[in-house]
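Deliverable D4.2, example record:
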Amino acid sequence: MVNIDVIFKIGAIGIIIAVISQILKKSDRDDIATLMAIAGLVIVLTLVINMISELFSTIKDIFYLF
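Output generated by the structure prediction step:
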């Protein structure tokens, strides 16, 4: 089963962060724009790490490991 919702969430987060960063850079708030970009990266990495954790749990269940 392909879960396409996660791809759309990651794309939406990327677009929102890019727009906010551009607005902040135009208003001479480069430091806050950088912090927003880092926050977006952390959010996306959290989503991906959760997906990888579920993948390993599924693989462990399939092969009856541990």
